[in-house]
Amino acid sequence: MKISVLAALLLTAAALPAAAQSGPSVQEQMACRGDASKFCAEHIGKPPQMNACLRENKSKLSDSCRKVVESRGG
């Protein structure tokens, strides 16, 4: 279980669009970890596809993750 949580965290870090050349903060990663694995698991390891998936599922995302996606241009 700990490995899957770590994998989801790393996935989210790679998945969110970069804003001003910076990666997502730890708080942003935590906000989207569950949503990324729930709605976009098939895109693990494919950051462009993960970004698109999160944007496409924005209406289904938790409030905290939706705010992250929106703040990063999604």
TrEMBL record:
Q: Which UniProt keywords apply?
A: Signal
Judging by the UniProt lineage, the source's domain of life is: Bacteria
- UniProt signal peptide: 1-20
List the protein's name.
Cysteine rich repeat-containing protein
**Origin species:** Bradyrhizobium agreste
